[in-house]
Task: inverse folding
């Protein structure tokens, strides 16, 4: 890892592109409800699951709270899947996650996604994190270039529809690098998952991507920020939580690019504060009155 980091730092040092940006935000993702919202005191942003989440009323006004919404896959075997199957809008299965890839151009799916965003708003979330767009685009690319372009256009249209219907909420898109420059003006945040670390979900083993791969991701993210200078870029990587030095190195590499990093475990069902950082970043009193969402 040290050799890789030295090489990457050398590549960055040779780059003429400035990496001077605003200081990084402190943020986290947590997809469960057992940890109290007080654990996220002092964080700038947190992403929770839309269904299973801690009661976060006391975070309001201090921390931006986003809800997870999948726009490229439908999860589980509920009525949504059956309805989409009847409309011939499913495009494949993600067995590991128990989900199915969706045809994003389906009017029925568009209605479902907008309803999920509306549900998040009603629950008090400040906005949504849109996930799995790459699944739909990749599945289409395996059929033809034409279908890939159709999927990209459908994804762009869906994001525009969400912004149009909910103009005041916060929007984050996970990856979607192929469409990111075009939709960047509609977003508040871009999330770059697994750009520095490659993780085998089936084994949980992680290793660093080659430096050129990370440089390519940086270029794509910077292109999006050129289209929308106010766009904040967050990163998410997975690493062995016992390797403190490795985790600290990942945080340092992303921050060198002006990104806001978070390092956790693939299931995202545990809260993993940055090593060496206190949970609470301010002297504010403990959160109380957290009885409602």
Result:
């Amino acid at each position: 890892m040290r050799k890789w980091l030295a090489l990457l730092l050398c590549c960055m040092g040779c780059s003429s592109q400035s990496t001077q940006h605003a200081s990084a935000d402190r943020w986290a993702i947590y997809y469960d409800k057992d940890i109290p919202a007080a654990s996220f005191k002092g964080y700038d942003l947190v992403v929770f699951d839309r269904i299973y989440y801690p009661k976060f009323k006391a975070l309001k006004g201090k921390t931006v709270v986003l809800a997870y919404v999948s726009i490229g896959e439908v999860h589980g075997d509920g009525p949504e899947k059956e309805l989409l199957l009847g409309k011939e809008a499913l495009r494949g299965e993600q067995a590991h996650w128990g989900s199915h890839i969706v045809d994003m151009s389906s009017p029925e799916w568009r209605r479902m996604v907008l309803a999920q965003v509306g549900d998040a708003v009603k629950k008090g979330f400040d906005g949504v994190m849109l996930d799995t767009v790459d699944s739909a685009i990749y599945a289409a690319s395996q059929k033809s270039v034409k279908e890939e372009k159709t999927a990209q256009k459908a994804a762009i249209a869906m994001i525009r529809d969400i912004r149009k219907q909910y103009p005041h909420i916060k929007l984050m898109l996970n990856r979607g690098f192929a469409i990111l420059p075009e939709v960047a003006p509609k977003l508040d945040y871009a999330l770059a998952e697994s750009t520095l670390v490659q993780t085998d979900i089936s084994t949980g083993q992680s290793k660093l991507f080659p430096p050129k791969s990370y440089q390519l991701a940086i270029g794509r993210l910077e292109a999006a920020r050129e289209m929308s200078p106010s766009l904040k870029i967050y990163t998410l990587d997975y690493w062995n939580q016992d390797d403190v030095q490795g985790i600290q190195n990942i945080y340092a590499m992303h921050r060198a690019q002006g990104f806001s990093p978070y390092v956790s475990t693939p299931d995202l069902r545990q809260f993993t504060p940055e090593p060496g950082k206190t949970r609470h970043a301010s002297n504010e009193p403990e959160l109380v009155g957290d009885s409602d969402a």
Notes: The longest helix spans residues 145-165. The CA atoms of residues 67 and 128 lie 5 Å apart.
